[in-house]
Amino acid sequence: MLKTIYTACRTCYSADYPINIYNSTDDKEKMLKLIDRIISSGHFSTIEHIQVTFAISNVSRSCTHQLVRHRHMSFSQKSQRYVKEKGQFDYIIPPTIDQNEELKKKYQDFMKDISEKYQEFVESGIPAEDARFVLPNATATSLVASLNLRELIHIANLRLCSRSQYEIRTMVKMMCEVLVKEEPWLEKYLVPKCKRLGFCNEDKSCGRKSNLS
Amino acid sequence: MLKTIYTACRTCYSADYPINIYNSTDDKEKMLKLIDRIISSGHFSTIEHIQVTFAISNVSRSCTHQLVRHRHMSFSQKSQRYVKEKGQFDYIIPPTIDQNEELKKKYQDFMKDISEKYQEFVESGIPAEDARFVLPNATATSLVASLNLRELIHIANLRLCSRSQYEIRTMVKMMCEVLVKEEPWLEKYLVPKCKRLGFCNEDKSCGRKSNLS
Amino acid sequence: MLKTIYTACRTCYSADYPINIYNSTDDKEKMLKLIDRIISSGHFSTIEHIQVTFAISNVSRSCTHQLVRHRHMSFSQKSQRYVKEKGQFDYIIPPTIDQNEELKKKYQDFMKDISEKYQEFVESGIPAEDARFVLPNATATSLVASLNLRELIHIANLRLCSRSQYEIRTMVKMMCEVLVKEEPWLEKYLVPKCKRLGFCNEDKSCGRKSNLS
Amino acid sequence: MLKTIYTACRTCYSADYPINIYNSTDDKEKMLKLIDRIISSGHFSTIEHIQVTFAISNVSRSCTHQLVRHRHMSFSQKSQRYVKEKGQFDYIIPPTIDQNEELKKKYQDFMKDISEKYQEFVESGIPAEDARFVLPNATATSLVASLNLRELIHIANLRLCSRSQYEIRTMVKMMCEVLVKEEPWLEKYLVPKCKRLGFCNEDKSCGRKSNLS
Question: Long-range contacts made by residues C99-104, C-beta under 8 angstroms, separation at least 24?
Answer without folding.
Answer: C100/D124, C103/D121, C103/D124, C103/D126
